Amino acid sequence: MKVLMLPLSAAAVLHGAALLQETDRPWDPWAGWREGTSIRYRIRKSAGPARQEGEVVKVLKEVTERGYVLEVRDSELTRNEVRRAEVPFPRKLREEDLTIEGGTFRCVVREMVSEGGDATSGGEAWVDRESGQTLKVAYAGEGAEGTAVELVAEVRDEKVNAAGRDFACVRLKGKIRTRFASGTITQWMSPEVPGGVVKTVSELTFQGSVVRTEMELEELKGERP
């Protein structure tokens, strides 16, 4: 049985939402890291007795005033892909109050930008102006993948051990829907990680089977200027 592959745009939902930085350069979770910084994720998928495992490596090749360039290496079983992703910095859309469990927070709402360089359809991220934490992410599910996601923070300070160290994370949880499956997704985020994502766990129902996908940070190499 082939295990359903969760699109990386969904597995790394918060690519465009990690830490608010009011600097001369537009905000983005990769912008505060030196060129050459890399992260490696281990991905595990299962559906009944079927298992698949692979990894994704992202290397920051260049940062400019307009955006940045990533080299993305994706391997799974016999598949090995390397691609170059030119990503523009996301735009600030507005500011508004967001009420979640634990209170009401003044947030900057930013667009979400895919690694293909396009704004994710209807994608928005709510970033707490005071703490820089991402408290909500949503996108509408238009386009080829048809993936719709809405995640809301349920825990604002949870320690997660990954890549040999502890990260202070926001845990977000919600629903995910693709053209062929639907289910739940939980994501742990930290501004201490380029791109913001420490760990993701999803469970989708696909053709009567529950497909579980785990993506966890295994290695982080790099430093901030």
What does this structure look like?
It contains one helix and 13 strands, in the order αβββββββββββββ. The chain is mainly beta and 225 residues long. It has a 13-stranded antiparallel sheet with strand order 4-3-2-1-13-12-11-10-9-8-7-6-5, with no helix packed on it. The protein has a single domain, classed as Beta Barrel (YmcC-like fold). Mean pLDDT is 83; it is low at 1-26.
Helix-strand sequence: HEEEEEEEEEEEEE
> Any idea what the shape is?
globular
The major pleated sheet works out as: 13 strands, antiparallel
- Helix-and-strand structural type: mainly beta
The number of helices is 1
Q: Compute the CA-based radius of gyration.
A: 17 Å
CATH architecture heading: Beta Barrel
Percent in strands:
over 45%
What's the number of structural domains? 1
Please state how the strands of the largest beta sheet are arranged side by side: 4-3-2-1-13-12-11-10-9-8-7-6-5
Q: How far is the N terminus from the C terminus?
A: 46 Å
The CATH C-level class name: Mainly Beta
Instruction: Give the fraction of residues assigned to helices.
Output: under 10%
CATH topology label? YmcC-like fold
Tell me, rounded to a whole number, the average pLDDT.
Answer: 83
Low-confidence regions: 1-26
Would you count the extended β strands for me?
A: 13
